Amino acid sequence: MNVLVLFAHPRIDRSEVNVVLARTATAIDGVTLVDLYAEYPTFEIDVEREQHRLADYDVIVFQHPVYWYSCPALLKEWMDLVLEHGFAYGEGGTALEGKVMFNAVTAGARREVYSHDGGYSYELKDFFVPFEQSARLCRMRYLPPFALYAAGHARDEDRLDDHVNAYTALLSALVEDRFDIDQAESGGGVSGGLDELIVAEVE
Known about the structure:
By secondary structure, the chain is of the alpha/beta class. It contains nine helices and five strands, in the order E-H-E-H-H-E-H-E-H-H-E-H-H-H.
């Protein structure tokens, strides 16, 4: 499958983790990364260009930091403009039907904070219901977020390399059609138990 990573980070110069994950994605054959803030610094999105771009990909990944329990502004603007009626949904809007979408995110808070008993009272996937519903409206398959929690501490705590390796494995498995999308879609997502979701190569 062809994988498109739409990367949205308004302050890449201050990024400790996302810039590493972006480099990781660009190094994988079959994955195309688009830096939205580099391409559209004034938010003037070329809607026709973006819609044509989507036609070439089977998997759409939104890679971004978690900003106020959601995504950076440009990614929301991209969704508002590009996912038009008649293109992505509604009468004749079948361009994205069957494609896979998920968020690959970095969160500032630790995993236990994103829980019903934690400080935020909800799981991270609960905050991302608007993305899930958008995918469903567009007849896409939505997978729960692939997340790195407490991202600002990941390097010091020696967790960054493991996450980079997991991201590489995930994207590579998607490209090679070795990822169990059915199980990921119906289960807990792609962050936990990743090994169980990647199908071994056929000899």
